[in-house]
């Protein structure tokens, strides 16, 4: 762990992180717990060093294999939606990517399972999350269209890639009263950040939160 530059300098320093948090507050992220967690997480370690100096800009950045680390605002917003009401204990994330969203969620939930379809991204985030000391995050290489049945049912599921429609498998792995936060829509049209609440074995309550831009579900 000593080889990781967790503190950072200059563009990756605590001052740079504090400025990002101010920006998120201005964009009306209100959950102080989320802001405090994001203030501490070294986002610059979740991307290639070539982009590290931009790590505390509020923007999505490439992480290779045609994928991106989500925009900090979007991470904060989705986490707010997920934690609203009661804090979920058992959570599933689809699309580990860099592992950054997982690290943020890991600070709040009891056990987070996260699945990634691209092998090298899975390996990198698995190793990084371990090196950073997260022991309640379980990474898996798998196709998220099938959720992760081995640890179902979940209190909440979050997807960080956008399918055309909500995969029914994910709804099946939710507890009654649980919720799914997911961007839905085709790549080149507007995607909607959607919150689906499971109200009964076969009933759902769906709400649209806001327009977003995500990479597509593979
Ligand atoms: N949560 C990530 C966002 C990464 S972008 C972060 O904080 O960095 C979305 C990720 O979803 C990509 O890594 C992509 O490979 C992955 N993905 C896309 N389709 C998937 C699928 N069907 N199953 C699992 N992961 C998928």
Automatic annotation (TrEMBL):
Q: What is this protein called?
A: Protein-L-isoaspartate O-methyltransferase
Q: What are its GO cellular component terms?
A: cytoplasm
Task: Tell me the superkingdom of the source.
Answer: Bacteria
Q: Which gene encodes it?
A: pcm
Q: Which UniProt keywords apply?
A: Cytoplasm, Methyltransferase, S-adenosyl-L-methionine, Transferase
InterPro entries attached to this UniProt entry: PCMT, SAM-dependent_MTases_sf
Checking PANTHER family in the record gives: PROTEIN-L-ISOASPARTATE O-METHYLTRANSFERASE (PTHR11579), PROTEIN-L-ISOASPARTATE(D-ASPARTATE) O-METHYLTRANSFERASE (PTHR11579:SF0)
EC numbers: 2.1.1.77
- Show the catalytic activity: [protein]-L-isoaspartate + S-adenosyl-L-methionine = [protein]-L-isoaspartate alpha-methyl ester + S-adenosyl-L-homocysteine
* Gene Ontology biological process terms in this record: methylation; protein repair
Q: Which terms in the Gene Ontology molecular function aspect does this entry carry?
A: protein-L-isoaspartate (D-aspartate) O-methyltransferase activity
Q: What does this protein do?
A: Catalyzes the methyl esterification of L-isoaspartyl residues in peptides and proteins that result from spontaneous decomposition of normal L-aspartyl and L-asparaginyl residues. It plays a role in the repair and/or degradation of damaged proteins.
Which species? uncultured Thiotrichaceae bacterium
Q: Which residues form the active site?
A: 70
């Amino acid at each position: 762990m000593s080889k990781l530059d967790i503190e950072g300098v200059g563009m990756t320093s605590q001052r740079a992180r504090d400025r990002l948090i101010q920006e998120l507050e201005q964009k009306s992220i209100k959950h102080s717990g989320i802001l405090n967690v994001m203030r501490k997480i070294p986002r610059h370690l979740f991307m290639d060093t070539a982009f590290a100096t931009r790590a505390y800009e509020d923007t999505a950045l490439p992480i290779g294999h045609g994928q991106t680390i989500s925009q900090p605002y979007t991470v904060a917003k989705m986490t707010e939606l997920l934690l609203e009401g009661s804090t979920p204990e058992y959570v599933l994330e689809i699309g580990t990517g860099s592992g950054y969203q997982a690290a943020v969620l890991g600070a709040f939930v009891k056990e987070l399972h996260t699945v990634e379809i691209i092998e090298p991204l899975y390996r990198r985030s698995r190793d990084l999350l371990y090196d950073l000391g997260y022991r309640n995050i379980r990474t898996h290489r798998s196709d998220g269209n099938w959720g992760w049945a081995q640890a179902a049912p979940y209190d909440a599921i979050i997807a960080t890639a956008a399918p055309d429609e909500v995969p029914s498998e994910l709804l099946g792995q939710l507890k009654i009263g649980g919720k799914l936060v997911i961007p839905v829509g085709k790549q080149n049209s507007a995607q909607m950040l959607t919150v689906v609440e499971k109200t009964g074995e076969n009933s759902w309550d769906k709400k649209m939160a806001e327009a977003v831009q995500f990479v597509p579900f593979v």
